[in-house]
Write a structure and sequence with these properties.
Layout: H1 2-25, H2 37-63, H3 71-91, H4 98-125
Length: 139
């Protein structure tokens, strides 16, 4: 199970790196709402930093099987989901509004599951302490 979760986290991290490249080269369609260069700059910077930090932490956490590193992208995706929910309440639905939220939830579930599996494997790998030597009372 740990191998499968490791592979899934690595794959998700690699996909996020592809999104980083896409954001750098051609900002998402939503950027057209910000008609000025300043708006495009903000959207490009935020998308790039969001996905690059998440992707690097996911890849490092999966390669080193370090569940603590997976907390960084977990909180990033929780924050993104919270902001999407705020936007949904404030402005209502829009075309394709559900897919990004489903992807955020999928990332969160995958990362929390992998973190749990990695921590469980670490606990299982710790050997039991050796019993204390028995010393006869010679007094």
């Amino acid at each position: 199970m740990r191998v499968v979760l490791t592979a899934l986290v690595l794959l998700a991290g690699l996909v996020d790196l592809i999104i980083v490249g896409s954001s750098l080269l051609t900002p998402h369609d939503g950027a057209e709402l910000a008609r000025a260069a300043h708006g495009l700059s903000i959207i490009r910077a935020h998308c790039t930093s969001f996905f690059s930090v998440a992707a690097v932490a996911m890849i490092a956490g999966a390669l080193w099987r370090n569940g603590d590193l997976l907390l960084v992208p977990t909180f990033i995706f929780i924050g993104a989901l919270a902001e999407r929910l705020v936007n949904l309440v404030a402005f209502g639905t829009y075309a394709n509004w559900l897919l990004p939220m489903v992807l955020d939830v999928a990332h969160i579930a995958l990362l929390l599951g992998a973190r749990h599996a990695f921590r469980q494997a670490d606990e299982d790998a710790v050997p039991a302490p050796a019993p204390a030597p028995h010393h006869a009372n010679l007094a």
